[in-house]
Each structure stands twice: as structure tokens, then as C-alpha cells.
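Input record, target 12 of the design panel.
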């Protein structure tokens, strides 16, 4: 009552002034309260105690992925996994593994290394020693293809240790050649590509000597696949990217054994191993995929690019370019 009576006695101009002063005071006090609460972090977004923001977190938020990052091959059946410890290395492609069924001999699928004591004693020992370095005393992962054991009761397996696919590694280092044994050929495509690169780099068994590899000297002797054909006697006659085939023509005076030869899709760097015979005066049609009449590369997918230039390149066993179209 007193304040109300006092307020009525004040002139209009003085009442206006009083209202303005009171408003400013309220605004100032409110601002000070807000600033005080902000300094205490009341209005900040909550930070979970389990995920503190640190310099380390920021640096690894988008980590770089190494070009060498391991990718499990799609051709291997991951569901067939069993594990064991390697207790003995017998040679470059055979090991003894202690597993749940005791000690068993394991033969690497899809590859063949020089044997110790053969013509290539030095390379045989190198393959053996590399295999020792990779697996001896280590836990390995074993995967099947189609066949469980071979004629010698050895388990046929793709072998992995840590992030290394041992079958593939031996081929990539030039210490083994890709060697398909039907029906265990699910990974032939990947192994053939590794061999092609080892040949091009002249690694291990592909070390060149007068344009003929040491491996060729041992395995082929005077076989026509090594060099008893004249330059220009075999060529690529046609590349049909849409229908996914390449025609090879033999213009020599004898049949040519194409074991060890490769046909390569240059754009995609896809490798088709050839292990058939090209008859004299005949054309061999090479399809990229299964389900085609004639020879096929068993590729899991098309390899020839339909719209962009994608040359086919033919290589002999010594890694020489025979034709490109």
C-alpha cells in the first residue's frame, strides 16, 4: 500500500525514468547471472566419461589405411577354418601340423615349389627356408577347397599365418609356381596373377638366363612352349570384349603346348593362365569365364572392358611379350 501510494504521487516523467532505470538494472543482473553459470559449464554439451576428447583421439579419428592392408581372399571358404601349430617344415609346400587330430601332413593347395635335391637344389633350399621363416612354430589357419586329402593322405589346404596367405606368398616371391590340380582351383586366378608378377620381376625360379628361366630349363627342356617356335608364328587374332573371348592363332609348323603361357587383360591386370595345346594352323578361342564352350580362364567375373581400350597381351613361359592387340 505504501509503495502504491508513493508511486501515484510521483509525476509521469519521473515514473518513466524510474521504469527505465529498473529495466536496465534487471537486464544487467540477468546478464551477470548467465555469465556466471556459463563459466561453470552449465550450458555445455555433456561429454561422456568413457570417450574423452584428446589430441590422440583427434589424430586417429580418420586413420590412414595402408596399401598393404590384408584383405582375406574371397576365393577361400572362411567357414572351413581349422587351426593348428606347425611343428615341422618338410619342404617349400609341405608342413606337419599339430591339431585336434594329432600330427597331420599338410600340402599347400595350388602351388608347387622346387624340391630339395632336384636340379634346382639352391632354389629348393630357398623355398624350404622361406617356408620355415613363415610358419615353423607358429599357429596357422587352414582352409579347404574341394578335396580333403590327396593320394598320399596329406591334407590339402590354403594356409594362413597372421595376415600372410602362405600359398600366395610363396608364389609372389618367385619360390613356387602356380600349379592347378583339379578340382581344387577356387583360388587359381589369384595365384596365377601372383606368378605373373613374379615372372615379370624375374624373382626366384623366374630369374632369367638368356631369356629362358631356370624353371623352364628344368621342367620343359626342348618343349615347344619354351622357344622352339619362330617369332610371329602365334598371334592374337581377335579380342571380343562384349562376348568375353580372345582368339589365338598358330601359324607355325607344329603344335604349341601353352602350359606356362599367360593371357593378360592389360587394363584390369587380370591374368588368364593357359595350359592347353594350340594345334598347328588352328584358332584357339579363350573365354574368360566358366560355362562357355571351349577353353576358359575360370575367372570369377568378366575381365575385358567393353567401352574403354583394354588390350590383350600374350606372354610365353619366359615372360616374353608374344603379341598385344
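The sequence produced for target 12 reads:
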Amino acid at each position: 500500500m505504501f509503495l502504491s501510494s508513493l508511486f501515484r504521487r510521483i509525476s509521469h516523467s519521473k515514473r518513466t525514468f524510474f521504469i527505465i532505470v529498473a529495466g536496465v538494472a534487471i537486464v544487467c543482473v540477468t546478464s551477470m547471472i548467465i555469465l556466471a553459470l556459463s563459466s561453470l559449464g552449465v550450458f555445455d554439451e555433456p561429454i561422456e566419461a568413457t570417450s574423452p576428447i584428446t589430441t590422440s583421439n583427434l589424430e586417429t579419428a580418420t586413420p590412414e589405411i595402408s596399401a598393404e592392408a590384408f584383405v582375406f581372399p574371397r576365393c577361400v571358404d572362411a567357414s572351413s577354418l581349422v587351426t593348428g601349430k606347425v611343428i615341422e617344415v618338410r619342404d617349400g609346400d609341405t608342413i606337419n601340423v599339430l591339431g585336434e587330430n594329432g600330427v597331420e601332413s599338410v600340402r599347400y593347395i595350388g602351388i608347387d615349389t622346387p624340391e630339395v635335391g632336384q636340379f634346382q637344389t639352391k632354389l629348393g633350399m630357398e623355398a624350404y627356408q622361406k617356408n620355415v621363416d613363415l610358419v615353423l612354430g607358429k599357429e596357422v589357419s587352414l582352409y579347404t577347397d574341394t578335396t580333403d586329402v590327396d593320394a598320399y593322405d596329406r591334407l590339402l589346404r590354403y594356409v594362413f599365418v597372421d595376415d600372410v596367405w602362405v600359398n600366395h606368398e610363396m608364389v609372389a616371391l618367385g619360390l613356387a609356381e602356380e600349379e592347378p590340380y583339379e578340382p581344387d582351383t577356387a583360388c587359381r586366378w589369384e595365384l596365377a596373377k601372383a606368378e605373373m608378377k613374379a615372372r615379370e620381376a624375374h624373382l626366384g625360379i623366374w630369374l632369367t638366363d638368356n631369356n629362358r628361366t631356370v624353371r623352364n630349363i628344368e621342367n620343359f627342356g626342348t618343349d615347344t612352349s619354351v622357344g622352339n617356335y619362330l617369332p610371329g608364328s602365334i598371334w592374337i587374332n581377335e579380342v571380343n570384349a562384349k562376348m568375353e573371348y580372345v582368339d589365338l592363332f598358330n601359324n607355325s609348323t607344329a603344335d604349341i603346348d601353352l602350359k606356362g603361357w599367360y593371357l593378360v587383360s592389360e587394363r584390369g591386370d587380370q591374368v588368364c593362365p593357359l595350359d592347353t595345346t594350340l594345334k598347328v594352323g588352328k584358332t584357339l578361342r579363350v573365354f574368360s569365364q566358366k560355362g562357355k564352350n571351349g577353353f576358359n580362364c575360370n575367372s570369377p567375373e568378366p575381365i575385358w572392358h567393353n567401352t574403354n581400350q583394354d588390350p590383350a597381351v600374350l606372354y610365353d613361359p619366359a615372360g616374353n611379350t608374344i603379341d598385344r592387340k
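Confidence is low (pLDDT under 50) at residues 45-67, 209-228.
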